[in-house]
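Researcher: Structure prediction, please.
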Amino acid sequence: MAINAGVPQGSVLSATLFLLHINDLLKPGTFGYADDSTVAERYTSSARASGSQIQSLREAMVGRLNSSLEAVSAWGNANLVEFNAAKTQACLFSAKRSQFSPAPTFRGAAVPITDCLDILGVTLTSTLNFGPFIEAKAHLAAKKLGILAKVRQYFTQEQLLKLYQAQVRSCMEYCSHLWDGSARYQLDALEAIERRAKRIIGNDALVESKLQSLEHRRRVASLSVFYRLHFGESEWRQRLSQPRAGLAVIAAISPLFEEWLERRHGVLTYRLTQVLTGHGSFGRFLFLIGREETPGCHHCEDRPEDTVEHTVALCPAWAEHRRVLRDVVGDGDLSRPALVQAMVRSEGDWDAVSSFCEAVMLAKEEAGRVRERTSSRPSRRERHSGRRGSRDDLRPP
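Model: Predicted structure follows.
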């Protein structure tokens, strides 16, 4: 079978290229890790909601799921990625016991509704009962501990302790912040394995000094996650209040910080990021990094400074693109704060701003390449001298 695409295996570059490849797929509500993709939606109902009201909410949720699945399928077709529809499953997490219908569809087939899902090694049941997952982990840890017991004569007690911590205990602590609140009788299976491990290691003083209890470690892990969730946003906001770089984009997003974080639409593309940050094919930026002789705009006769604001709101070269943008976002100003405000307002406004940035920045990039090809002078990046510009010393004899 011919392979006409791929990435270098086992290198840092391969992971970076893969992230760039799937960036357009990971919209709000769509999550990916390696080659696993998960789409999530939710609905909220009151305790007194009738059956018909709940059914209506579920149908609306399934409609949103189908839209997300259609977007995933379209992305796969555009990027030559094949999704296995037969392995696709759905699970409803709810305290309601009523039958779930209708089922979401993916590539023309109904997605089966199951009572549990395995996501990245964690078994999630529809009632969020982690008993089956804990039981499976206890069984796996017991098998590993049995192997350790058979070879213990070849290791010192300290080596046995390290092997237990690395191979057995790590298995019993996987994603413990999710299931730490499980019933005591479910967690007792893990405690029994640790008691057996202590007997195998044998050195009580060593174990007591270097082996914290499973319960203590689970509580610390859970509290650490909770702390990051609770205080992470405030710490992030604190750092953004005293920025050292990216002043313009931070000033644009800060007034709408919560709306930006909580939005359910929109993906930052390469060229949209260029416009928000000002780091792209703008005369001012190219001048600052030594790519242009002046910061002037090549599309205007009087050569004003080519900034983000000039490109988006003033430059006559992009008048038609600007008209299309204004038809969607309105006739207000087109400063970066105004663009961010429009983007968080609705998915349609976000797409309009993104389309404008894609079209205009692509045209500016192509115009820049044409100028470099037709110019009689070498581009500034080709005119470095000295140690950085000379490569003769790096060539093989």
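Model: The chain has a mean pLDDT of 85.
Researcher: Thanks, that helps.
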